[in-house]
Structure formats: structure tokens, C-alpha cells
Amino acid sequence: MNREQTCKQLVEVKYRTTWSEDLFDEVRDQVKLFGELVLVSVNAKSDDPKKLNGPSRFLRCCRLKFDGDTYMVQYRNNLGELVWKPVDGIKNSSQWLWWSMLKLPEVFPQLLEDKNKDTLLQAVSALAGILDT
Predict the structure, then answer these.
(1) Which of 40, 78, 98, 101 is most buried by its number of CB atoms within 10 A?
(2) Whole-prediction pTM
């Protein structure tokens, strides 16, 4: 919930050494129960093909919801547009889907990546160490 209490979102955070769209299956029941949630994923060992080396390399999020009986995920398509697609239609797409998920400030605008870069990178580094043990 934001400070003004005008916006509230259910958020699920998942920490993984490597990311997989299998996370969508892990939260399916929660999405069905609550209607919609934001999945924030920490990918502690994300590749860096885009040479980002910033928090968005390790932290991505997406909205998940049910539209009738169809389980849907929101991400950016290759034109940069936000789209909703059935989760079942995107299996075996881990690499491109990770980079198509949203940066945290796109869902949480009060969290400016540049302002919080060092703190977020330190948190990811600490989590990576925990996940490796």
C-alpha cells in the first residue's frame, strides 16, 4: 500500500539462484485466491547480455491474474508494449521472459532504481550468498 493508501497491491517475493517460469506455477493458487498479485523475483545469478549491471538485472516483476479460468501474466512484448498473455502459452521461455518482465519502478514508481541502486545491489549480493549455502 502506498503512503496515501490510494494504491494497494498484493506482492509475492521469490528468491532464487536462477530464475524459471516455474515460479508462476508456485503462486498459481495464491493468484486464484486473491484475483491478482505482483510477483517480484530475485534472480541472484542473472546473466547480463544487456550489460545492465544494475538492480534490474537481478530484480524483475510482473502482474499475474486470472481472466475467467485463464491464468495470465503481464510483461513487455518485443515492441515494448505491456501485454497480458496466458501463462500456459509461454513455457520454455525463461531467458526472453526474464528480460520482458518489468523493472521494479515500472510497478512501484516510488522506488527509483538510480536512487536505490547500491542498496538493491547489496541486498541481491547478500541473498546470492545465502542461496549458495
Answers:
(1) 101
(2) 0.78
| DSSP bridge pairs for 71 | 66
What DSSP string describes 111-129?
Answer: S-HHHHHHHHHHHHHHHHH
Lowest mean pLDDT among 19-23, 26-30, 78-82: 19-23
Q: What are the residue boundaries of the structural domains of the chain, listed by start?
A: 11-132
| Contact present, 31 and 64 (Cβ < 8 Å) | yes
Q: Any bridge partners for residue 84, and if so which?
A: 74
Q: Per residue in 99-108, is it b (16+ CB within 10 Å) or e — as a string?
A: bbbbbbbbbb
| Neighbouring residues of 44: CB distance < 8 A, sequence distance ≥ 6 | 15, 16, 17, 18, 58, 124, 127, 128, 131, 132
Q: How many CB atoms lie within 10 A of CB 34?
A: 14
- Tell me whether residue 80 is exposed, middle or buried, using C-beta atoms within 10 angstroms of its C-beta: 0 to 12, 13 to 18, 19 or more: exposed
